[in-house]
Amino acid sequence: MENELQRLKAEAEEALHAIGDKAALEEFRVKFLGRKGLLSSTMKQLGKVSKEDRPRLGKLANTIKKGVEELFQDKKEVLESSGGGIVEDVDLSLPGRSLPFGKLHPVTQVMDEICAVFEGMGFAVAEGPDVETDHYNFEALNIPKHHPARDMHDTFYVSDSILLRTHTSPMQARIMENQEPPLRYIAPGKVYRCDSDITHTPMFVQVEGFLVDRKVSFADLKGVLSSFIHRMFRDDLPLRFRPSFFPFTEPSAEVDIACVFCGGSGCRICKRTGWIEILGAGLIDPEVMKMVGYDPDEFSGFAFGLGVERIAMLKYGIDDIRLYYENDLRFLSQF
Ligand code: DAH
């Protein structure tokens, strides 16, 4: 009898230890602690033991039963506090915690859109170096040393002859030098000028474009740029070509669109003119053609350059260019 009780105790302890869910615990209870369970039926045998042994064995049986009951209660509490078992209360079909998605920067988005519009018109995309030589940035574009146009560029110099490009126009010279017409290219990229206020940042993004072939005229330039502007903004947006000057184009023009803030009636942003300038353009100057070895009597071409931040500002109604580069997620996540 004593051995039997000790064996039951060991068996019960081992069984409890292995239990991991409520159903198994209930099975345990019935098997060991129930009215017809193993402990009860063993205790019923007490009546058959000798009178001398009965008190001692009875006491032992009670202690063992109490011990097992306590262990059972402990296990029950553990299972309840852990949610009643490992598997049954975990809903594996619930979605996980979502992480915030990253997005393309608004300037990148608009740049991609600009490139897509020109690619749709058959322009190829080329990229060039941010660190440029004085030759490609200025000389090859008909801006010799001491030319007053250099003053407009607020250049960051690396050395006497190396600088951070102030515009993407050097790509005209780089590409024309290495290829024969017909050519149709756009060159997007970062440019740098020592300038900072609500309409200028020291680094900004431009897209240069040019086309060279036989008999290219100003009408071709007007057609391509009008299509571009109407695709970027809206089909019926008024625009105008206004005479201007650039050393690398002749004739030169600046293109204005009807002010997107006031609709053309005049406001603070368009300085009451009703027009906003969005790009520079012109027919490629014969001097630039000669410098890359083209015969200006045989070939002609047009070129244009635009600022991507500016186009994005007009598209989204943003009035301070510096917002793009302050990395404030409340601003950036709107696009
Ligand atoms: N490179 C000029 C600038 O940064 C923009 C420009 C004007 C480019 C006229 C052109 C052009 O190709 O024809 O201000």
What does this structure look like?
The chain folds into two domains: 2-81; 106-332, BirA Bifunctional Protein, domain 2, CATH 3.30.930.10. It is built from eleven helices and nine strands. It has helices at residues 2-18, 22-33, 38-44, 54-81, 106-120, 134-137, 170-178, 218-232, 286-291, 308-316, 329-332, and strands at residues 124-125, 131-133, 162-164, 183-192, 203-213, 239-246, 249-258, 275-284, 300-307. The protein has a seven-stranded mixed sheet with strand order 1-4-5-9-8-7-6, sandwiched between helices. β6 and β7 (249-258) form a beta hairpin. α1 (2-18) runs parallel beside α4, α2 (22-33) runs antiparallel to α4 (54-81) and α5 packs across α10. The radius of gyration is 42 Å and the shape is rod-shaped. The relative contact order is 0.10. 3,4-dihydroxyphenylalanine binds next to β8 and β9.
Question: Could you tell me which ligands this complex binds, including any ions or cofactors?
Answer: 3,4-dihydroxyphenylalanine
Stretches where pLDDT is under 50 for at least 5 consecutive residues are none
Radius of gyration: 42 Å
Count the domains.
Answer: 2
CATH uppermost class of the largest domain:
Alpha Beta
Give a quick set of tags describing it:
single chain; 335 residues; alpha+beta; BirA Bifunctional Protein, domain 2; 2 domains; 7-stranded mixed β-sheet; two-stranded antiparallel sheet; binds 3,4-dihydroxyphenylalanine
